[in-house]
Amino acid sequence: MISSVLHADTPDTVAVLGRRVQYKYVVAAILVSALFLDILDTTIVNVALPTLGRQFGADSTEWVVVGYTLSLAVFIPVSGWLSDRVGTKRVFLFAFAMFIGASALCGAAQSIEQLIAFRVLQGVGGGMLTPVGLAMMFRVFPPAERARVSTLMMVPTLAAPALGPVIGGFLITNAGWRWIFYVNVPVGMLAFYVGLKLLREHREPTAGRFDLAGFILSGGGLASFVYALSQGPRDGWASANVLLFGLLGVTMLVGMVFVETNKAQPMLMLSLLRNRMFRNANIISAFSIASFLGLLFVLPSYLQILRGLSAQDSGLVTFPQAIGVGCSTFIAGSLYKRIGPRRLIFSGLFLSSMTIFAFQWLTLSTNLWWIRGLMVARGFCMGFAFVPMQASSYATIAPADNGRASAIFSTQRQVAISLAVAVLGTILARYITMGPTGLVSDPQRALAGFHMTFVVAGGLALLGSVAALFIRDSDAAGTMSPRR
């Protein structure tokens, strides 16, 4: 029985299948599994939206994505305090169980309303998985080993978005749309069981009381702001609902900053942004993740709308990016210990921006192998940026503040992604007009719109490379090998 071979052994190791394994690697394996499912689920669902629309005969399928995103916006900020107060193991397993259970419910949904409600529940779990998991990881891995574990973190961060369209297209074609949710259940249950048996609890005695004002202002502000961003490209930025929720979101977020900076125990510890290394890492992360996922948002649309590829086939074109990432992450991890984050992040993002700018030369008949080659090159460059950024972000953060720092880092990433998708979606909406037959009425004009989005995505990576110049390698000295 598996329960007989999973048990705690020593403070530094656990026994798994009769072999002693270092506890920190067990934490990393569970975290990678959970994050992979979480990120994979997001990209798979995007592929399934047309199928869901046909299944339920509804024009509100976008709320399958929007509802999940709004739920993330509410629960990411509270995750840091909750894990400190209740315990990282309890909160992580609760979030994981919520995610797995909601996945099963989504698969069994009988109406679009049920599916949207279950996706909101899924977002509750998904919103807490990443920040709590990162806090757990940075507690068990000492600073000197974070470059090594950061290479593992690239698996869910960079590979899952590339695999999502491929797996999603395959499941929808061969098993039906319900299996894009059911697929999470068996893998998730196994990882949950291992976590239940092997993870150790950790609480912070300085967590303080629940910050109700901070929760309302941060959750409500982020949800309103993200909603406005999601609706802007469709309804127009001057529409009443976009202006109302955008203004409400900004007002609440400004109020949140005022309230949180004047509290001894805030929900979002914004004072951590005074930490130079952490602040710079957040700025760079915002630009880089916006560029990375921004391109993965527009390129499949180019392949499907202008080139006529299926979702699965377009995924096979973008997937080679994962090959480039796999080739560079281990090299980046080794170089990081000798030269530090500054030059690696700058080089990775600068070269990545150049590869993205090259997408401007795509035509309506560009050889798909040329696109695959660009994706390999882009993945290779991004690996050099993401590994050192992940390794150095928390270099000067006190262990007791890891949970709060992870909540800020995850919040920043969610806002950056929403902004990127909103801006790029707005550009495409202005240039793409669908004809009565369901085809693009003016392919050349649509192509010009895609070219503009490639310029924006490349520009975001370029701005990230400029921000990397403000990093001081000395701030990340604890995560590097001692200089001889």
TrEMBL record:
<feature type="transmembrane region" description="Helical">
    <location>
        <begin position="280"/>
        <end position="303"/>
    </location>
</feature>
<keyword id="KW-1003">Cell membrane</keyword>
<dbReference type="GO" id="GO:0005886">
    <property type="term" value="C:plasma membrane"/>
</dbReference>
<dbReference type="InterPro" id="IPR020846">
    <property type="entry name" value="MFS_dom"/>
</dbReference>
<feature type="transmembrane region" description="Helical">
    <location>
        <begin position="91"/>
        <end position="110"/>
    </location>
</feature>
<feature type="transmembrane region" description="Helical">
    <location>
        <begin position="343"/>
        <end position="362"/>
    </location>
</feature>
<feature type="transmembrane region" description="Helical">
    <location>
        <begin position="179"/>
        <end position="198"/>
    </location>
</feature>
<keyword id="KW-0813">Transport</keyword>
<feature type="transmembrane region" description="Helical">
    <location>
        <begin position="368"/>
        <end position="387"/>
    </location>
</feature>
<feature type="transmembrane region" description="Helical">
    <location>
        <begin position="116"/>
        <end position="140"/>
    </location>
</feature>
<keyword id="KW-0812">Transmembrane</keyword>
<feature type="domain" description="Major facilitator superfamily (MFS) profile">
    <location>
        <begin position="27"/>
        <end position="476"/>
    </location>
</feature>
<feature type="transmembrane region" description="Helical">
    <location>
        <begin position="61"/>
        <end position="82"/>
    </location>
</feature>
<feature type="transmembrane region" description="Helical">
    <location>
        <begin position="210"/>
        <end position="230"/>
    </location>
</feature>
<feature type="transmembrane region" description="Helical">
    <location>
        <begin position="25"/>
        <end position="49"/>
    </location>
</feature>
<feature type="transmembrane region" description="Helical">
    <location>
        <begin position="452"/>
        <end position="471"/>
    </location>
</feature>
<feature type="transmembrane region" description="Helical">
    <location>
        <begin position="236"/>
        <end position="259"/>
    </location>
</feature>
<feature type="transmembrane region" description="Helical">
    <location>
        <begin position="152"/>
        <end position="173"/>
    </location>
</feature>
<dbReference type="Pfam" id="PF07690">
    <property type="entry name" value="MFS_1"/>
</dbReference>
<comment type="similarity">
    <text>Belongs to the major facilitator superfamily. EmrB family.</text>
</comment>
<dbReference type="InterPro" id="IPR004638">
    <property type="entry name" value="EmrB-like"/>
</dbReference>
<keyword id="KW-1133">Transmembrane helix</keyword>
<dbReference type="InterPro" id="IPR036259">
    <property type="entry name" value="MFS_trans_sf"/>
</dbReference>
<keyword id="KW-0472">Membrane</keyword>
<feature type="transmembrane region" description="Helical">
    <location>
        <begin position="315"/>
        <end position="336"/>
    </location>
</feature>
<dbReference type="GO" id="GO:0022857">
    <property type="term" value="F:transmembrane transporter activity"/>
</dbReference>
<protein>
    <submittedName>
        <fullName>Unannotated protein</fullName>
    </submittedName>
</protein>
<feature type="transmembrane region" description="Helical">
    <location>
        <begin position="414"/>
        <end position="432"/>
    </location>
</feature>
<dbReference type="InterPro" id="IPR011701">
    <property type="entry name" value="MFS"/>
</dbReference>
